[in-house]
Amino acid sequence: MTREAPRSVEGQPHHFRRHNSYDDDALSCLWEEVPFAKLPHDAPKELVDFVVQVENPKHIYAIHRASRRHNFQLLVEKYVVQLRYGCNSPTCCTPTCFSFRRRLAGKTPIRRYNPTSARTLAAYLASKDNPENGLCPHLSPPRAPPAALNSLIFASKKPLSSKGKKHVEPSDSKKTPTQASVRNEKLHQTDQSEFKTPVNTKLNATPHARKIPLGELEEEKEVSPTGQPETPAFSIYERPVSKDYRSFAANVFGSVAFKMLEWLTPNGMAAMAERATEFQDDVKTKPRPAGPGLKPKVAEVKAPHTPSKPYHAPCDETPTRNHSRINRTESSARVVTDVGREPPTPLEPPRDPPVEWGSGLPPITKPAVSTHRPDRPGPQRQNSNARVRAASKSKPKKQMAIDTFPPSTDDMITGLRSPRIVPGSQPEKATKPFMTTTPSITRTLKQNASEDLFQRNTSLDTVVPPSRSDIPPVKEGIVCSSPSTGDELHDSAQSSQDTSETNAESVNAVSDVGSEILPQSLSKLNLEIVDLFCDILQEDGTAEEHMLEPPSIKRRSRRGRQGPKPLKRRSGSRRAQTSAMRQQWKLFIEQSLFHVLSDPYAIVNSFTTENGLLDSPTLWYCMLRITRVAPSLVFDSLWIAAASLFAPPKRLQSIRSPTSRFFHISERSLSSKGASNLLAVCLHALVAAVPLLSDSSALFDVSRLRSHGLSTDNTGPSSRQMTQLCLQYDDVFSDELALRLARRLFSAVSTRRGFQELVETDIDFDSDMPETDILQSILSQLSSIAEDPSETSTLIFSHSEYELHEKRVPTLLLDWARAVMLREWDGQPEVNAAGPFGGALELISAIFEKRHSFHIGDVDFRSEYFPDRLDSVEMPIAWLLDSSTRQRKHLLDYPYLFNPASLVSYFRAINFSRMNRSYEESSSLLSRMKHIMQQGSLISNEAHKQLLSEMLRTASLQYLILEIRRGDPLKDTFDQLWRREERELLRPLKVHLGEDSGEEGFDSGGVQQEFFRIAVARALDPGYGLFTVDDRTHMAWFRPGGLEAEWKYELVGLIFSLAVYNGLTLPITFPRALYRKLLGEPVTDIHHIADGWPDLANGLTTLLEWDENDGTVEDIFARTYEFSVETFGVHVSREMAWPSESASVGSKEPKWPQWHSSMAPPTTGNPADAPMVTGENRNAFVSDYIKYLTNVSVAPQFASFQRGFRTVIHPKSLSLLTSPLLQNLVEGIQTIDVPELRRYARYVGFEPSNKTIRDFWSIVKRYDERMKRKLLEFVTASDRVPVGGMKNLQFVIQKNGEQDDRGHLPTAYTCYGTLLLPEYRDKEVLKERLGMALQNAQGFGFA
Predict the structure, then answer these.
(1) What is the DSSP string of 1303-1341?
(2) Where residue 162 falls among pLDDT bands split at 50, 70, 90?
(3) Cis amide linkage into residue 1282, ω under 30° from 0
(4) Sign of CA dihedral 370, 373, 379, 383
(5) Cβ-count burial of 997 within 10 angstroms (0-12 exposed, 13-18 middle, 19+ buried)?
(6) Which of 193, 382, 385, 1057 is close enough to 1208 for a disulfide, judged by CB 3.0 to 4.6 Å?
(7) CA dist list (Å): 1144 to 802, 1137, 1170, 1300
(8) What 3-state DSSP class applies to 884?
(9) In terms of C-beta density within 10 A (0-12 exposed, 13-18 middle, 19 or more buried), how is residue 179 classed?
(10) CA–CA separation, 933 vs 939, rounded Å?
(11) Which residue stretches does the UniProt record annotate as biased composition, category Basic residues (predicted)?
């Protein structure tokens, strides 16, 4: 994409962003109708400095909400047409288009969706992110009104006469109600009913004189010559239909509320208006029924077969609002003078109007008035509410500043002329001032709507914005208000005794200016303003109704007394508690929150200080308060602001950058630091939406439950409080607005990481000044919480609240990431790394890398939902061949998402697959060889057959067979494993042990286990010279500078590898540091060596924590800066790097002297006078000492061991394991839990309640650890429990006859884990015989 071609946000098609005059007309009409937010008169003086005027209609919250609802209706209409009728294109490839379905069906009959099914699918498709992407590019406007109109019936009104009430004639309009009978509120109240009551709606014959907002069916009231409104002459009913009460779609999407999605579109309103006009004309041409008993005339709304062309009235004929609105009569731009008004001249309808989606309004060109059409009988007024201009020639065009926000490619337009102001004119009094009220478009519709107007590059090409000088100046310090009437202003000024003279003049000035002043808002937020706004909304009861818990939050005290004072409303005004003032405050607060939270720069400016972003507890508190008063507004506004995260940074827009041609130049591109701060604020808003908990254990339980993809715990008993808490959590994590925000944030993480990679490849990139990572701010805040948040927090929190917040933020961030992943996952192990799923994975990965500093355990990262739904055999095998890219990732690339049991299963599946492949290859070759050796084969020469058989002998062996003597098992093992090919080592292992001395045994696993036990025991013997064993911990470690050759370490590593490859455990104990090194993890901290060298770890910890006020480090510890070991009774020491010159950059890795290869004695390099360890270098000393202990002193021995260990095991499969998990795989679990072993034991010939069985477990329960291990080794040939616990161990007790005079001892089938236990006569005999068998168990034979 070239630079000149504008690129939409998140890859939206360009044809959806083209200029549409209808959107401009809709904005113009909404600008005329919506209430303007003004700073109330009782606002604190501190807010005046932050007040700004809103010049862009798209930045007005009421317009934004109405536009969202209207756009959603248009999307639903388009999808209904697409689903039911299609585009008629022979090459359509849109899956949801009817033309595509018909093309795929061919000659097979295909059934169209009925209106309810199409409405159901359309509402779902229109609610998805970027719903325009699912529209068919060939889709054309509808040729007929919506099918939902077929259920409407127009009927004449019955005269009102019942129970003695006087008959009301149509002319007696004073006694009829004048308010609109159908409003948005009423419609939502009837969405569960069948709309039985009539809808008294008068639809104008020129239905598009103004755009009717989404969700509002406003009555257009006729005015009689006397000035009184007339009642409509008809009612609208919905046809009764039969429904299947068991159908969810029929009872929900067939309700009135969802049908109005199609009724109230411009096409639907045009069809209803045309039918209503025809019906009303028919009624007027016929005599009215004389009595109330006559049946009314009924007319149904039918969809015509030919396209209807409704009359398009000019948009300037905007109807006035009703009489409960704030007065704006002082402006001379428009004055309503219905009395004595001359009927205007008719206006010819435009010829061949352009057909567009939702084209109910033509573009605004010039003011015009039309109240009569020649083709309609009678002197009926076409727009009874149209306003009369003072002078049509002087009336300017509507001037609006419209830009795309955010991100914006142009700077904010600085001037806007109010459509109610005539330049140069002075306010004059109207003979009959009109009254205005807040229309229903300001009501919130909780719907995941389509792309709003902020994401469209809409502009008015024909409108030139005026300069700011055209707007009347506002005095400095004026507190603006919007009183309802002049009398109310006078009363308010008289009653405010405590208001200063300046404020009184301000109020009077506002009454003079009236509607000239533009909408107002605050330019930024802070802690005090957030508290003020939330307190006002909670006190007035005007906060948004929501399902978040708790529903309200109290103000919290600031730390210190030097901070700003809390803001409060000024008291003394009688209007402070009136309904009008409450609504005025609500309107101003909503506008301010929307104006700030939808602007990324205002967000960063509001929640950052000179020291950077606010601390996490304070930022969380601010988000907590505003999400409890206006959650929908907050999530929607932050979603809009988060769109700026997808704009490339300035470096990528540079002309010198090779990537500049791929990105559209944006003047308001966020820096990397600003993007990171914005992301942190939005993530804190998501965290604040979750219900508050006072117990971290409950937070952990709910998080673990949600990791399984469950809402509540259905597997066991749970308390009522826990169930309620789980449901509250589910309400938050299933909220569409919150999920939409989370998806956009995680998508931005992937996008910004991609931008960062492009910046690093730029020729002008400076490595000394790297770009700020998108997750840096949130990770820094998490780190500050873990360190000491009390020093940086602005608010006062208790110690327990800090500890809870330390667990809350990372846990809930992981929960949000999992929620998005579960929503986005398609069931495949390969996932899209460039979307929300990939961004969530990157957040989890970033937190996992710093989990120790955040005090988070590995279990918090597991998502049990994935392993339960993935194939445990095929998936890991396919992962070995998979290569992840920037766009595609595999779930196994993030092994911390899986539990240890699943990872072990995947690891063993990989090993089994490789073993099976090697076995099948050799078996196939062996079968071919047998066929060749048969008589009559192609090879007839016996010598040739023998030669061929000898050459293919290695390749045709199905097993790796080892012949081992008990006398020297390690030597026999080395001899038979030396120079073996890899394909041989990958085959299943078979061991013949001790057969030279008469032992007999079939190797089904037990003989292998015995072989590894005796071979490893010999290798780890300190007398053999390969390893040393600690006297306290009994842990083995490499001998520094040993006498043995390095190839022996490689063969020992190969033995370890074969054991793990064949699924066996070894009776060894190595420190955790060995397994960290095998996995490539660094060994740098004291806790890495604490299990292998506990005394050393304690000493180093004491050295680091020593307070030099009690004595210097040199005097107390008297340690030199050197590393010393004793090998074969010789003391070998070397001075470590610091502070010698060898520590300089580029120096070679220090080497330890080796006895077997060095000609000089190792003691020749011992330092004569090493420097002392001081308080200055003790940290470096500890790091260097650990490095020499685990790396430098044993480097050649470990390198050889690692080379042998990786011979059989695939290196990529090792990335599935952690160091503790690998240790359990190699060593098993040394702790033997007898009750757990009894739980999983099985019996053959015995019942669990048998006396012998009860006596057996009673005896075993009293065994010490040594006897427990002997018992386990006697039955299974291993004294370790396999990884996964006792459930993965086979332990069978089989009856082996009854006791006789010969006194048989218990025996075991170690290959099958079976204990052959005779039924002894009493417990004492059983104890004696069992102990004798365990003490003398050695060798194999057939029982």
Answers:
(1) -PPPEEETTTTEEEEEE-SSHHHHHHHHHHHHHT-----
(2) very low
(3) no
(4) negative
(5) exposed
(6) 1057
(7) 43, 9, 18, 80
(8) coil
(9) exposed
(10) 8
(11) 553-573
| pLDDT on residue 767 | 59
Q: How far apart (Å, rounded) are the C-alpha atoms in residues 37 and 518?
A: 9
Distance CA(257)–CA(445), nearest Å, equals: 12
Name the DSSP letter for residue 581. H
Question: What CA–CA distance (Å, rounded) separates 843 from 851?
Answer: 12
Give one DSSP letter per residue of 622-685, joined into a string.
HHHHHHTT-HHHHHHHHHHHHGGGGSPPHHHHSTTSTTGGGS---TTPPPHHHHHHHHHHHHHH
pLDDT higher than threshold 90 for residue 507: no
**Cis ω before 550 (30° cut-off from 0):** yes
Going by their DSSP bridges, the two strands 888-890 and 830-832 should be labelled as antiparallel
- 618 phi/psi in degrees, rounded to 5: -70, -45
- The token pair that represents 147 in the structure block: 């099918």
∠ CA 611-615-619 to the nearest 5 degrees? 120
- How far is it, in rounded angstroms, from Cα 1006 to Cα 1009? 5
User: For tokens 């098609």, what's the residue?
Assistant: 13
Q: Is 465 a residue whose pLDDT tops 70?
A: no
Contact 605, 673 (CB under 8 A): no
> pLDDT tens digits, residue range 83-127?
999 999 999 999 999 999 999 998 889 999 999 999 999 999 998
Return the SS3 of 1133: strand
- Cα separations (Å) of 494 from 390, 510, 555? 33, 16, 33
- The residues with which 156 forms a beta bridge, in sequence order, are 234
Asked if residues 563 and 645 have their Cβ atoms less than 8 Å apart, the reply is no
Interaxial angle between packed helices 1006-1019 and 969-977, expressed in degrees from 0 to 180 and rounded to the nearest 10: 100
Q: How far apart, in Å, are the Cα atoms of 96 and each of 84, 252, 1045?
A: 10, 22, 71
Kindly report the average pLDDT of the chain as a whole number.
75
Instruction: Give dist(CA 1329, CA 1319) in Å, integer.
Output: 11
Nearest to 1066 by CA among 1123, 1120, 1014: 1014
Helix, strand, or coil (residue 114):
coil
Active site residues: 1311
Tokens of 269: 């309103």
What does the block give as tokens for 1213?
């499969």
pTM over cut 0.85: no
pLDDT for 585-604, tens place per residue?
A: 999 999 999 999 999 999 99
- The mean pLDDT of 503-507, rounded to a whole number, is 39
Measured distance CA(99)–CA(95) in Å, rounded: 9
Residues 6 or more apart in contact with residue 1196 via CB below 8 angstroms:
1046, 1154
Host H or E run for residue 911:
helix 900-933
Which pLDDT band holds residue 287 (cuts at 50, 70, 90)?
Answer: low
3-class secondary structure, 299: strand
3 state SS for 396-436: CCCCCCCCCCCCCCCCCCCCCCCCCCCCCCCCCCCCCCCCC
Which has the closest alpha carbon to 652: 771, 748, 769?
771
Sole residue written with tokens 């303007």? 36
Residues 6+ apart with CB under 8 A from 115: 80, 84, 147, 148
Position 353 pLDDT exceeds 70: no
Helices (H), 1145-1210: 1178-1190, 1195-1205
Identify whether the C-beta of residue 430 lies closer than 8 Å to the C-beta of residue 336: yes
Give me the residues paired with residue 199 across strands: 236
Tokens encoding 660: 């500049």
Contact of 1133 with 1124, CB cutoff 8 Å? yes
